[in-house]
């Protein structure tokens, strides 16, 4: 059974779904600050396999360490609308930490552009992801904050099989509707090869890296 919800954040009191396999949430109120509390209900669904979230800068994105782990989740899809030029994406790691059995991670970014003045990437320590096998990042432009996140995952996901980097973004809007974001030509002219080389240098042996 699948469940899809788009709208203002709902006040859940009782949500019994013993056969729920897939959830899509898009809480579109700009006042949402308690999304992690809503997500905590997902930890009670014994058969939940896939979680799809629509996120933006106005929502609280980081999951608190105190939240119950989503222990049955195998696939996580994050659709993120950016509204500022440069933004730390390391909040994604709080989802990896909350999903210890996660095998597949898809991230799609929109509102993205390449910035001329790039910051140095930081070295992130302290986490390993032993079950993560496949990662896909869409709407990728090669900015430092994108490279920082994917480089950390390449170094820290010990069972990783494949990483796909895609400049094209197909953004799910809910209700079966999609929006398409295409890359600028400079990606193919120069940045793609630079990104491929940098990520290949940081990938563990055996990881199949695809840069489209």
TrEMBL record:
SUPFAM superfamilies in UniProt: RNI-like
Residue ranges annotated for the At1g61320/AtMIF1 LRR domain, each copy included: 42-166
Protein name stated in the entry: Uncharacterized protein LOC105133524
Source organism of this protein record: Populus euphratica (Euphrates poplar)
């Amino acid at each position: 059974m699948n469940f899809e919800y788009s709208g203002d954040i709902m006040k859940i009191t009782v949500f019994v779904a013993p056969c729920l396999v897939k959830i899509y949430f898009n809480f579109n109120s700009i006042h949402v600050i308690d999304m992690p509390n809503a997500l905590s209900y997902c930890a009670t669904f014994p058969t939940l396999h896939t979680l799809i979230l629509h996120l933006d800068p106005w929502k609280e994105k980081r999951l608190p360490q105190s939240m119950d782990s989503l222990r049955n989740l195998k696939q996580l899809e994050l659709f993120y609308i950016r509204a500022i030029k440069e933004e730390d994406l390391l909040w994604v790691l709080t989802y990896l930490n909350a999903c210890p059995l996660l095998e597949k991670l898809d991230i799609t970014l929109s509102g993205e552009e390449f910035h001329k003045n790039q910051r140095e990437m930081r070295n992130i320590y302290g986490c390993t992801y032993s079950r993560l096998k496949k990662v896909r990042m869409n709407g990728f432009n090669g900015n430092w904050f994108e490279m920082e996140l994917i480089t950390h995952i390449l170094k820290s996901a010990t069972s990783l099989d494949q990483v796909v980097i895609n400049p094209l973004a197909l953004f799910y809007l809910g209700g079966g509707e999609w929006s398409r974001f295409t890359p600028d030509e400079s990606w193919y002219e120069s940045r793609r090869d630079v990104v491929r080389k940098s990520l290949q240098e940081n990938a563990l042996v055996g990881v199949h890296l695809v840069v489209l």
